[in-house]
Amino acid sequence: MDMNAETAALRQCRIELAAALRWAARLGFQSGICNHFSVAVPGHPEWMLINPEGFFWAEARASDMVIAAHDGRILSANGHSVETTAFCIHAPIHRLVPEAVAVLHTHMHHATAICMRKDGVVSPSYLSAMSFYQRIAYDRGFDGPALTPAEGERLAALIGDNFVLMMENHGPLVLGASIGEALLRLLYLEDTCRMQLLAEAGGHALARIPVPMMAAIPKDVPRFKAYARGFMAAVVRSLTRSEPDFLE
């Protein structure tokens, strides 16, 4: 690909990825300058677009996003690097999980608090939790920071056909068929975990949503996909008004 003659689809990916990072920053989802959001490059699934190393999400710009091959090669000419753990987690998941067009990993507080619990699970007790029924995988094999691609391959095997991975002692990872879908799921997950922790703090048992009601929801809900498109458009529109430099 000629990096100086980008396709409209790649340009849109850059804009949406930068917007997703800034929106997540507004919500307090970033931990230091760590954590990563990535998306498969349109027309080149063997490449990913990912946020650069050493930047706050709040300063993300479309031109700062890095195109990288799954083997660790940097293909962009903007001079930015990618954190080692980003390659070791994201690249194998993009490569091995067909539905992983967008991969978002955070240490957002409430979802990570559930990950810190021994055998912690997301309770199906809140409206937003219904979409996660039998779509959350749990990693109970924490082995420290992800410093080799083998760790990402292990995580990819755990994900299977789910779109959320709760990594014990670490934090959540969310997949989507688009950046908008993944970002919306990330918000729903954090909201669900926050509500769960608040309800449990009162000392009462949680009222679980009936299984037949949750089981009736298909994995790919057209309404969710449409809502995710509208949500992403609203995020881009809002940021274009308030923080237009993200488009640079």
Topology record:
Blueprint: H1 8-26, E1 36-41, E2 44-50, E3 66-69, H2 84-96, E4 102-105, H3 109-116, E5 136-139, H4 149-159, E6 164-167, E7 171-176, H5 179-201, H6 211-215, H7 222-242
Parallel strand pairs: 5-6
Antiparallel strand pairs: 1-2, 1-4, 2-3, 4-7, 6-7
Helix pairs in contact: 1-7, 2-4, 3-5, 5-7
Tally of extended strands? 7
Label the structural class: alpha+beta
Provide a count of the helices.
Answer: 7
**Overall spatial form:** globular
Strand content: 5-15%
Query: What helical percentage do the residues reach?
Result: 40-55%
Q: Separation of termini? A: 21 Å
CATH third-tier fold name: L-fuculose-1-phosphate Aldolase
The strand line-up of the biggest sheet is 3-2-1-4-7-6-5
Query: Which architecture per CATH?
Result: 3-Layer(aba) Sandwich
CATH superfamily: Class II aldolase/adducin N-terminal domain
Would you write up a description of this structure?
The protein is α+β, with helices and mostly antiparallel strands. It has a single domain (8-247), classed as L-fuculose-1-phosphate Aldolase (3-Layer(aba) Sandwich), CATH 3.40.225. Helix content is 40%, strand content 14%. The protein contains seven helices and seven strands, in the order αβββαβαβαββααα. It has helices at 8-26, 84-96, 109-116, 149-159, 179-201, 211-215, 222-242, and strands at 36-41, 44-50, 66-69, 102-105, 136-139, 164-167, 171-176. It has a seven-stranded mixed beta sheet with strand order 3-2-1-4-7-6-5, with helices on both faces. A hairpin with a 3-residue loop joins strand 6 (164-167) and strand 7 (171-176). The two termini are 21 Å apart. The mean pLDDT is 94.
